[in-house]
C-alpha cells in the first residue's frame, strides 16, 4: 500500500500498550474520557427515553447481516469437484523457502524514476523457477508488461463465466537495517515463527501466495472453471504508472470486463476494535482521494534594512496556519465508513452496540470520538498535511518567493473540486497561488450485499479458512493501492489481505520489523487456494447480476 495505512485500526483499544497508542498519554486519557462519555450518554438515554431505547435494541439485533445467501451457495459448492488444501510438511517447507527467496530480492522503489531494476529483473526469473507448474500450464498465459510487471491469464474451462482478477505488487519501500530486530531487512530471517523482512506484509506475501496457491492447485490437477487474471505490478509504491496502468491498458484493448477484483489493503483486525472480542475481517470497498497542492507567494525582492510589512515567507506561513487551524469538516456518517460501523453494530459490547446501531442519532458523537487519534481522524475527514516548505535565499535579502506543498487525502463523500474550493476560502488571500497536481477523487464505492458475487466468494472463503473470524465488514482504505487504476474494468474492487493484524503490527507497515508468521502465510495461501475454487461455483444470483449489467 502506498502513502498511508488502512483506517480500521480505528477505535484502537484504550487498554492497548502499543507504541503508537502510548505515544500520547494525553490522547489516551482523552479517549478514555470520551468512552466514559459515550457510556454516560447511552445510559442517560436509557433512563430517560425508554421508547427510543426499545427501538435501538430492535435495530441493534435486526441489523445483523443476512446469511440467507449462504445455504444455497453451500449446496452448489458440494456438487463441484473440490481438491483439498491439506498442505504436506514438505509443501509447507517449500512455501516458507520460496517466500524467503522472494523477500531477499531487493525490489526497492526509491522514487518513480529510481527503482532497483536489477532486482526486479531477477524477480521475473525467480518466479519462473519457483512455480514450474504455473509456467508450464497449457491454459495459463504469462506476459511481461512494462518490462518488470507480470500479467497471467488463467483460461477457465467455462468461458460463459465472467472472469475476476487478483492483484499484488512486487516492489517495496526502502529499508535500512537500523532499528530492526534482525540484522538485515532483506535477509528474510525466521525468528519465533515469523519471517522478518521488507515486503512480508506489503506485499510480496500476496504475490507469492497467489502464485503458490495456483501452483498447488495445478499440482492437484485442478483446472479452474472460471477464467481469472493475476496482475503483479512493479511500481505500486511510486504510483503504478509503469505497471498497473499498462496492465489495465492491455486488458482494455482486449475488451475485458471483470466480475470483481481483489487487491491488498485491509486486514483481519484482531483485538483492535474497541468493544469487539473476535477478529474482524475488513474488506475495503473504497480508497480516499488525494491532492498534492503547491502554494506559492512571490513578492518584490529587496534589502532587509527597509523591509515591507510582510514578506513572502510571512504571508505563506499565515496561509498554512489557517489551513492547520481550520481542518476540513468532520464528515463522519456521510461516507463509506458508515457501512463498517453499521454492519459491526451487533458485534459491539453494550452500550457501543446501541450507539453504533443508531448512528442517525449518535453519528456526531462518534465522529467527535474518532477525531481524537490521527488514524481514526483520517477516517472521518479530508486530512491536511503540510509536507514541504521552501523560502529565502540569504539572511539579509527579502525573500522573492516562498512555496510549500500540502498533501490532502479526500474523504469518500467529497471531491477534488470541493476540497479546493474550501481551501481557497480558508486561505482567502489572492497573493497565495494554489496549484493542484496529482489530484484524484475518492474511488467509487464497490457493491456490498448478499447478491454481489465477489462478496459471496469472500464470505465463503473466510468462513472456510478463518473460522475464528467473528465479523466480515466493508471498510475504507486511507492509503492507495494499484487497484485504483482498474476502475474501467469493473465496478467491484475490494482491498483485503487475509492476514491477522494486531495492535503491535501498526508501526511495521513501511516501518521497522515488518513480518508475517509462517502459520499466517500458509493460511493466506490456503485462502487464495479456496478462493479460486469458491469462484468456480456459479451461484444462483449470478444470472441476476449479469442481467443487471446488460
Ligand atoms: C538491488 O538488488 C540487488 C539484488 O537483489 C542487490 O544485490 C543490490 O544491492 C540492490 N541495490 C540497491 C541499490 O538496493
Ligand atoms: C510542486 O512542488 C514540488 C516540490 O517543491 C515540485 O517538485 C513540483 O514540481 C511543484 N509542482 C508545480 C506544478 O509547481
Ligand atoms: C520554492 O522556493 C524556493 C526558495 O525560494 C525556490 O528555490 C524554488 O525554486 C521554489 N520552487 C518552486 C517549485 O516554486
Ligand atoms: Zn502495498
TrEMBL record:
Residue sites binding Zn(2+) 1 per the record: 202, 237, 510
Signal peptide: none
SUPFAM superfamilies: Bacterial exopeptidase dimerisation domain (SSF55031), Zn-dependent exopeptidases (SSF53187)
Record's keyword terms, sorted: Hydrolase, Membrane, Metal-binding, Protease, Transmembrane, Transmembrane helix, Zinc
One of the GO biological process terms: amide biosynthetic process
UniProt keyword annotation of Membrane present: yes
Pathway membership: Amino-acid metabolism; Lipid metabolism; fatty acid metabolism
Active site, renumbered: 171, 236 (proton acceptor)
TM helices/strands, residue ranges: 36-58
Record function comment: Secreted enzyme that regulates the endogenous N-fatty acyl amino acid (NAAs) tissue and circulating levels by functioning as a bidirectional NAA synthase/hydrolase. It condenses free fatty acids and free amino acids to generate NAAs and bidirectionally catalyzes the reverse hydrolysis reaction. Some of these NAAs stimulate oxidative metabolism via mitochondrial uncoupling, increasing energy expenditure in a UPC1-independent manner. Thereby, this secreted protein may indirectly regulate whole body energy expenditure.
The protein, known as: Peptidase M20 domain containing 1
